[in-house]
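Quarterly update from the structural biology core.
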Amino acid sequence: MAVKFINFGKNDFFNEKNHHDAIYKYMPSEYALESLDKKYLYFANPKKWDDPFEKRFIEAKYKTENGITKSFPLEGKVFCTCMTQTPISEAHWIVYGRRKDVVRITFSRENLYHILHDFSNRNHCDIYIGKVKYMTTPEIRNGKLSEVLSYGKCDFKDKKTQIKLLLLKRNAFEYENEIRIIIVYNKKIGKDEVLLDYKPEFSNELVKKITLAPKIDNGEKENLRKKFSKYHVEVSESYLYRPKSSNTIIKI
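Predicted structure, tokenized:
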């Protein structure tokens, strides 16, 4: 088994312009602590996504040339986690940080890739790293699959074609600059989530940094620093809203 790439290539994923080996994920601090403690990454069944436009291809029926209606071939076999390539974004803190104890995890791309490759081999499943394609609402809602996926002909039996449908998102979310990691099993799992476990030797190299939310209060900030310190990972805080000085003098 191997890790495959969709909508971009392996060289693009590892390119230096991608923030020097870093990729990011936002989550509540207790989820981050549990993930570090138990050494796993959380993957959700796309049917649990909130946005109906994102999961419409999972829930839809498909009409073939023979007039037969079929369900999505990967239903019950596919699980996903979402990350971003953008290191600093107020929108991310607002969307994911409705709770003030949210943190941003900085992952090493290289070590993440090795973990995914190891899990794929151990569990005999395919893993795809895909770049999200942003389109208008009418394009996603009304277009034929061949038009939506920019194909001259749409081969719905092709697994990569099916995966591409899970990488479509509306232009309103383009600020997310999202990368989706998708696990595909050979048979239905019957779960709403999958925990991608990784070996202890990857622990110290996977998470490069934990960044605390910009509006977190000082007491909770110190509490979280202590909790994360046991994992020997750098902990900092976002200075998004912090002025350089309270005595700033501006020339007129």
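The CA atoms of residues 72 and 163 lie 11 Å apart.
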